[in-house]
Specification:
By secondary structure, this protein is of the alpha+beta class. It has four domains: about 60 residues, DnaJ domain (Helix Hairpins); about 80 residues, Urease metallochaperone UreE, N-terminal domain (HSP40/DNAj peptide-binding domain, Sandwich), CATH 2.60.260.20; about 70 residues, Urease metallochaperone UreE, N-terminal domain (HSP40/DNAj peptide-binding domain); about 30 residues, no CATH class. The protein is about 25% helix and about 30% strand. The chain is built from eight helices and 15 strands. Helix 1 crosses helix 3 and helix 2 runs antiparallel to helix 3. About 5% of the residues have low confidence. It binds zinc ion (2 copies). One zinc ion binds next to loops.
Length: about 325
């Protein structure tokens, strides 16, 4: 017996997938099983079905070390409504923490006038406008039956006036959706079954919510790092000590070392939260050095004193300036 016959026995096209073969076998085995089917031929037919199944499934299943055959068509799916997309914009902190949003989705409700049938029980009869009720129209060949009313002179409108024959009415539905924490702009949340309506014998499409993040007055998101501008007094930068830095989780105190000259400070892991295998980003504070608009007498005296000490220890405290002083001497 050739392979073609095996396919015929199971009622399958050539190149049917393993899943299709299994499904066809289950259906036919059920029909021809001698315990269920009193037909005298059932026994033979059942054996034939099983043999066809065993041969075909062997050919369709990949042997170890071999790529699965690509001849099989994909398993047929139930028809599905269209997928829909919607943009949602969140604040940076909300998106970082995750939140719940209420969205309004277009949907349909069955028309109550016609209980979803789109028809009314008694048709509304109106005089045909095309032939003015005569049922005939004068053309090039004289009078002929009116096409619009099929010569009756009137038309009967059976459409439900409530829904204009559609059987449904547009309705907006409020939907609460949980947005998981740490989603990045452009990433999507799938809301199963909230897309386009289900076709006949199918399931509705899905709704995809694509995230965008509103600009924040303090923070700027760059991939997973959160950047923030922090004005800091020049005296604090020189003396070192604690300063306050805002993060998405609130204020953090950081301890600056003395004579901190870097324009930025990185707080590892304090940026945008991670998600799954994605690690959290960093918080990067950009310092904006703030100078006093004027100095008090005391401040000036203290700074003069600091400068004097500095000049006495230039070799240790600032070799660049020490070398510069030496260069000036050679030009004197
Ligand atoms: Zn209706
Ligand atoms: Zn007519």
């Amino acid at each position: 017996m050739s392979a073609v016959d095996f396919h015929q026995i199971l009622g399958l096209p050539q190149g049917a997938s393993a899943a299709e073969i299994k499904r066809a076998y289950r259906r036919l085995a059920m029909r021809w099983h001698p315990d269920r089917n009193p037909d005298p031929q059932a026994h033979d037919q059942f054996r034939l079905v099983r043999e066809a199944f065993e041969r075909l499934i062997q050919a369709a299943s990949p042997s170890p070390g071999e790529a699965p055959p690509q001849t099989g068509s994909p398993e047929p799916r139930r028809p599905k409504g269209e997928d829909r997309r919607m943009e949602i914009s969140l604040g940076l902190a909300e998106a970082a923490r995750g939140c719940s949003v209420t969205i309004s989705v277009e949907s349909r409700s069955a028309c109550s006038d016609c209980e979803g049938s789109g028809k009314r029980s008694y048709g509304r009869t109106t005089m045909c406008g095309a032939c003015h009720g005569s049922g005939r129209i004068r053309g090039a060949n004289g009078l002929s039956a009116c096409q619009t009313c099929a010569g009756k002179g009137f038309t009967t409108d059976c459409r439900c006036p409530g829904c204009e024959g559609r059987g449904w009415l547009p309705a907006n539905r409020q939907l609460d959706v949980r947005i998981p924490p740490g989603l990045l702009p452009g990433e999507e949340v799938r809301v199963t079954g909230q897309g386009g309506p289900a076709p006949q014998d199918g399931e509705p499409g899905d709704l995809y919510l694509r995230l965008s993040i509103d600009p924040h007055p303090l923070f700027r998101l760059e991939h997973l790092d959160v950047h923030v501008q922090v004005p800091v007094s020049i005296f604090r930068l020189l003396a070192g000590g604690q300063i306050e830095v805002p993060t998405l989780d609130g204020i953090r105190e950081i301890l600056l070392p003395e004579a901190f000259t870097e324009p930025r400070f990185r707080l590892t892991g304090a940026g945008y939260p991670g998600r799954g295998a994605r690690s959290p980003g960093d918080l990067i504070a950009h310092f904006e050095t703030q100078l006093p608009r004027f100095l008090t007498k005391e401040q000036k005296a203290m700074l003069d004193m600091a400068e004097q000490v500095f000049q006495h220890q230039l070799d240790d405290q600032n070799p660049t300036l020490a070398r510069w002083q030496a260069t000036l001497e050679t030009h004197r």
